[in-house]
Amino acid sequence: MMVSKYSNAVLLPLLLFGVVIAIWSAISVQIPGFPPPSEVWSELLVVLSDPFYNNGAGDQGIALQLGNSLARVFGGFALAIAVGVPVGLLIGMSKSAYTAFNPYIQILKPVSPLAWLPLALFVFKEVNTTAIFVIFVTSIWPIIINTALGVRSVSEDYLNVARVLQLSPFERVFQIILPVAVPFIFTGMRLSLGIAWLVIVAAEMLTGGVGIGFWIWDEYNNLNYSHIIIGILLIGVIGYILDAAMGLIADFFDYRKRGLK
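-> structure tokens emitted (261 positions)
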């Protein structure tokens, strides 16, 4: 039974991969100039053969392009955590804070990251800071919302015990609220990181400089469609790795899952 389970886990994705390759090959035959899988594979080997070369800001290896993008992502993501967790705790603990913040969260949450770019460029006049700000302002909302949800999930019995013990607000947060809210906070962080990785590609396409988004747009201008597909695949792989890593971290801090092991 276990052998069948693991064989299906390998066989089914491979079968779907074969279907995707067949469809891709058929599309490349029907659309002149559309790169077939074999051409993309050959170009991928070339791209990965020297990923760290650096001939200046506009001509760098794929590893350096991805590194610049990840640095911006983690910069904006760290700011989102630093601001989002305290605000989420405040909203979850205070009905007045919830009433004050909620309308603005609901208004700003659906705003596209591209809408922030022109204003951010005008204010900061610098690509890196602009990208970090846009990531911050568009990825903070899942952290705030999930943190507040985690605080509200704390049992009233626990809070009553805290009152009986006359715990200070800080003791209540660190001894009662955070242990319960941490799984929710990390869920928000996981969603936030995914949004940040989506945002950076669009931001770099418009702001230029270096980064995987700029690299894809530059290859489009050069009519190098094989490199565009390579960029798309690399974005997907990196996004999967980031999500899987955040999932492992979230599981480690989730007392509910640790208790089942």
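The first helix runs from residue 2 to 30.
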